[in-house]
Amino acid sequence: MFNDYFLFEVTMILNNVSIFDLSPPEKLQLVEDLWDDLAATPSEVPVHEWQKEELARRKANLMSKPTSGLSWTDVKRRVRSRYGR
Fold first, then answer.
1. pLDDT tens by residue, 59-68
2. Which backbone phi and psi does 15 adopt, to 5 degrees?
3. Taking a C-beta distance cutoff of 8 angstroms, is the pair 20, 55 a contact?
């Protein structure tokens, strides 16, 4: 994974190519590779204090009002109805 990205980066540098020159499928692949690399070491991904506070706020809200959340089925239904998929 990381080696593939490294080779990709070296190739881009040698060919004087910017990520903005990539095709949409190439950009998606790059994002996927970067995400996979970050996911491999989650403890190294910084989490800001405001993000921790927001997660704590949302968890407290859900714990105090358990029926306020949506089921995964409802979430998918909303997304599909909004975006037609």
1. 999 899 988 8
2. -95, 5
3. no
Half-sphere exposure (Cβ direction) of 75: Cα atoms closer than 13 Å: 5
User: What pTM was computed for the model?
Assistant: 0.52
Q: For residue 18, give the amino acid letter.
A: S
* Cβ neighbourhood burial of 33 (10 Å; 0-12, 13-18, 19+): middle
pLDDT band at 81 (very low <50, low <70, confident <90, very high): very high
Question: Residues near 8 by Cβ (< 8 Å), separated by ≥ 6?
Answer: 30, 33
What lies within 8 Å, CB to CB, of 27 at 6+ separation is 19
Q: Are 23 and 55 in contact (CB under 8 A)?
A: no
